[in-house]
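Standup, Tuesday
Yesterday: got the pipeline producing structure tokens again.
Today: sanity-check two examples.
Blockers: none.

Example 1:
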Amino acid sequence: MQHLRRYREIVFVFIKYGFGAIIDNIGILKHINVRRKILKQTNDENIAKLSRGERLRLALEELGPTFIKMGQILSTRPDILPKDLIKELEKLQDKVPAFSFDEVKSVIQNEFGESLEEAYAEFEPTPLAAASIAQVHMAKLWSGKTVVVKVQRPGIEKIIAQDMRILEDIAKFVDNRTKYGKLYNFTKMVEDFKKRLEEELDFRIEGENAEKFKKNFLKDKKVKIPSILWTHTTRRVLTMEYIDGIPLNDFNAIDEAGLDRGAIARNLAKSVLNQILRDGFFHGDPHPGNIMVLGDGTIAFLDFGMVGSLSPERKRQFSKMLLGIVYKNSRMITESIIDLNAVTLNVNMKKLEKDINNLRNRYVEIPLEKLKVGEVLNGVFDLVFSYNIVIPNEFNMLAKSLITLEGIVEKLNPKISVLEVAKPIAKQLIPKMFSTQHMKEEIINATMDYSRLIKELPSFLLNFLRKTEEENYAVELKIRDFESLEKRVDKVFNRLSTSIILLALSIVIAGILIGSGMSANAGAEMYKLNVIILKIGLAIAFVIVLGLAISIFRSGRL
């Protein structure tokens, strides 16, 4: 009830863009006191002409930052949304009117405990860019260093907190009251989304992400990460080194500067692949607006609010998958999927490997330099989803990053393939997979697992023995597909029984016929008796066979 107005606003926006039937099917309308007739009151012809993807994108943009961010995350979930919606959600624009310079001053005053004039020697009132969560200004420190300052939009935390509580309520409602909750754990998805948003709202975490990238690329002279000015950075204000470069999508400026597009494309692809395969810490949104090119061809990454992180185990799993794609080895791809520990018991692994092999055959004749890693990954993930295998969230973000990278590389130089750049990096991974260090880690992990097993085994056995002493304790053994096995056995026995009965009747009738033939000369009375006995025998045989047939057909186990 506390957020009823916002609930209604959300519902009316989705109805406005043609999603009223879905809202009605979920059953939310009656809980927020909205009459169903409102569904018929929105017939905008211009909106009706748009595709469902365009309508969804516009609805999320109208609802504000929380829903824009949610749409951006959903664009990495092909297991939930079809391709046409994902393609449209990737276009979500996070651009809104800038907030006033007085509000900027107020935020900095509250965060630093001093005025903007005291904190910065110069500060440009007009922002370079404005988004729903923050806007960016040029400034200069008293030391003379030129910087960019990211200032959080006033009141945005309160708005997002309110929307998150509403999304949590809706997720619980859908999980508990609809069939969709049985397919997807929406409550868990909203929890993950909330955590990611909270991290994005804390600019100190973004600063730490930038520092980590800077450390990882310390020896790479062709990758530039801006330095963070921690003396001028808080939860709601981020100050970083200003980088004077050319936006990656400004191809005319790149050409006018005499830069080699091919070298830039290779450098970019190599840097992103190293982030994923070497460091296990990668940029989650490497679109052209977040990347610049310096005068010597150096790549500079900006905006570290959305990053992906891979544990050593996940890094090995994806490396194995990428090696399988590079070498077109379906067994290696299948093993990498099994290693995710997301495969349920009812998955037919032989069939899965066969399907992956068929997928591989589509690309086996395509040269590596023309093969699209995004296309192959999407094909693998689509196939895996059809088996109800859940791909980890970090892999979905990783796939989106690689697809975005591939699009940029293709525009810079269509002759360069991301997989071709990945091959030498992938080759370096093979020795690491069988290195003594890796084997040592595996042995240590296995030893710890066995140690835990030995430690917990006595208490487990003790509990098991105590349960066996209970009067109501029962052990149930279930045979997989037992019912189908039982039906097959029944069919065999029914047919065998029918054959035996028919054989017995045949012998009896044959005996009667033979007896009749032998007594044919015994007189007319004996002959008539034999004919009567033969007819009675045939009638009994017919009734027995008919009854047996009806019984078998009724059981359905012929």
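Example 2:
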Amino acid sequence: MGKSKVTIKEIADMAGVSIATVSHVINRTRYVRPELVDKIEKIIVETGYQNKIADKERKLLVGRESTIVAVIPNIESTIYRDMVAYVKQLVSVQGYQFLVAITDNDLKEETQVLAGLLVNKKVAGIIHAPVSDVAANYTKLIQSGVPFVCVERNILGSGIDSVEFRDREAIFKGADYLLASGHKNVLFFRESTDSTTRDERTKGFLSALQKYNINTNDANIVDVTLENGEDDCMLVIQKALRRYRPTAVLAGGNRITLYLMKTLRDMGIDCPGEISVVGFGDESWSELTYPPLTIIRRDVKGLSTKAVGMLFEKINTGAVISHDCYADVELVVRKSTKMLDNGPFGDKAAAPDSVVLTKEEKQRLKAGHFRVAISFHYTGTSWAELHEKGIREELEQFGIDVVSVMDAHFDSELQNAQLDGIRLQKPDAVIAIPADDSRTREKFQELSKVSKLVFISNVPDGMSKNSYVSCVSVNESENGTNTGRMLGEYCKENKKKKAGFIIHGAAFYGTRVRDNAAERIIKDSYPDIDIVTIRSFGEISNAYQVARDVITANPEIEAMYVSWDRPALLVIKALKELGREDVAVFTTDLDHGIARCMEEGIVKGLSTQRPYEQGRAAAAVVAKSLVSEEQLPKYVGVQPYQVEPKQLRLAWKEIFHESMPDRLR
């Protein structure tokens, strides 16, 4: 066309779109359909308008309306610090100067800042995180005609544009996760400043309590005044932790998260052993803490991009955006939280370190020449070897002898015969994993009359609480939930929709809880994923044929949950033979075979028991029971360990207490 002074309005008329749409295509500030982008960009080239764009990008605007200003409460909070960086990049590329004004979250200071900006002819627009939500406090700003957009916080009133996070949904997600994990006594720390943000976060917390039928009048909520400084904030947090004694804490802000973690450290409180923590804001350090912090993460880049796009639309067209605009939030589950588990009789799980031997008890053990026998359902795995190693090392320090180790090869009749042999040995205590929950009950009941019994993983059906000392197990609810969540996140990220479940058909308490938890988390948290089929195997060897049948009948399956590693290896064998290595497998328990499959890429994630720690915990309970009349916990829960491919080597060292073998690297 050769037109040298074409305007953006003429470009819009030629394309049959609004000026705002052309602006979005030029500035990349909002999604526009690809075919429309192509059309507009073609017109821009044909008219020579791209030269005008290039000139604008080469030099900053000068004179009137050349500056964009971000008015924010502080620069300490990660959200504002990151937002400033994103906004600066977005406005600078469009030729504007960029300035930041700090209000210190003080209304009087903010009023003075805004008054100065409104008389400054260079100010083209304002990105504003307001101190207050009352429109009357911003009458001059609203009436000035200076384009502005509220971010993260809002001013209540009509005709005020804003980009916010779904704060109610964000806090609801965090609280819901903790409550679903069995925590009833959850403490919520929130910022004391009056704002729509604070109100929305409070509503999210109360909504989660209502979902679990917890009276909101009993809500544990503590206000933290950030303006009072770090020491005062940490003192408030410390007093609240001592007063409410929560099992879980939810932080309602970035700096609150930091002060909370510092306070827990200073108080010597173990996370998540004593208190589970869900933080807020995804600070850069949150993944580097020990343990890595479960966090409510907000898309600050998305917020900034939407806000700048909205501001330039107002600058270019004067239009007010009529619809609500929100940036995304998500819950990132790491390792600062644990599920509260219940044992076979509903007993709440005690932590392994709650079983403590006194100096006097240790002396009595060494003088007592006690003897312990071990009855395994199967010993042909690293899992069993680590259990035995943990048991032996714990007992040896007290001078307790292991007189026999039996392997039932998953045969209940063989285990019954072995239990008769153990009874003849007259050990002081027996550590056992039942081969069958019902067929071994009678023999264990007889054995309990002459020896102290400590079970690992599960208790035979029908045994009374008084007939055994304790049951030590991984938290199977969390084990299954971890695995199900990893499957769900994989499918979500990779846009997969179809999953299959291959579960244990035998009525073992632990595997039943684990499998149910994995299924429940998919149905509750990932409604877009269709569990196409749930098939069970009784004998481990049957898992191979079950997998072949499942994939043959349901070729659309894209991800598979398998109850634990040994049947998972047979499922993987079937998948490979069928040429379906594209099916992602998720399972529990780490071993050599599964590690190799994770290295190959077919196993995408797993949650594993800590057999060495479980063995030591079982031995500690036995030792305590031999010299103490103290009531020991009926159920001791060991937190599982979540493993993803990138963490495999570290996980191996954590679980096996040795470096990963070279042949697996």
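Quick observation on example 2: Residues 183 and 438 are 32 Å apart (CA to CA). The chain has a mean pLDDT of 89.
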